[in-house]
Amino acid sequence: MIRVVLAEDQGMVLGAFAALLDLQPDIEVVAAVSDGDAALTAVTEHRPDVLLTDIEMPGRSGLDVAAELRRRDDPTRVLIVTTFARGGYLRRAMDAGVLGYVLKDAPIAQLADALREVHAGHRVIAPELAVAAWDSADPLTDRERELLREVLDGASNTDIAHRLHLAEGTVRNYLSTAMAKLNARNRTEAATTARDHGWL
């Protein structure tokens, strides 16, 4: 029996996944949660074989959860299921040790098969995602990504400087560099472009 924790912030999707996967004779959903922090707690509590998680959720993202599990050397394998065919997300998922990455519009039988493959230690990637990743190299540094996430949250340069303990001029320099790399006219456009490519 493959023991699974589900993490998905859309209640209807979460319920559908749980119900459909529980119909599989070899899969048991041991917990279903709606945010990244709860996913980490559920993995710690239930010790599942596989965490099936969305990317964009309240609190920690699915990629953040995967990275934290890897940092903890947790044996739970991670399968990402998402609506986003963004190459940047796939690259970050691979860096975080994720074994599977599939799209939500796949048939449930295909999702169940992906779970079985990931449980067996095999890598599963939707073909359209592999193509997107090949064409989408992330030009940003970790610090630039950090600042652009703050911009997406609506922070001013002054706010960012205070939060990250940087000089305001340093913040401007990082953001200017990121804007140039992304051919953006302003910091908001740079942040949006980076998000849409899956780099944040």
List keywords for this structure.
elongated, Rossmann fold, about 200 residues, Arc Repressor Mutant, subunit A, about 15% strand, 2 domains, single chain, alpha/beta, six-stranded parallel sheet, 10 helices
Number of domains: 2
The CATH topology of the largest domain is given as Rossmann fold
- Content-based structural category: alpha/beta
Strand-residue fraction? Answer: 5-15%
Stretches with pLDDT under 50, minimum 5 residues: none
Helix content estimate:
40-55%
Strand order within the widest sheet? 2-1-3-4-5-6
Q: Any idea what the CATH superfamily of the largest domain is called?
A: Response regulator
Helix count equals: 10
- Main β-sheet, in a few words? 6 strands, parallel
Rounded to the nearest angstrom, the radius of gyration is 18 Å
Shape: elongated
The SSE string, one letter per element, is: EHEHEHEHEHEHHHHH
Q: What number is the mean pLDDT?
A: 90
Organism: Umezawaea tangerina
InterPro entries: CheY-like_superfamily, Sig_transdc_resp-reg_C-effctor, Sig_transdc_resp-reg_receiver, Tscrpt_reg_LuxR_C, WalR-like
Pfam families: GerE, Response_reg
GO molecular function: DNA binding
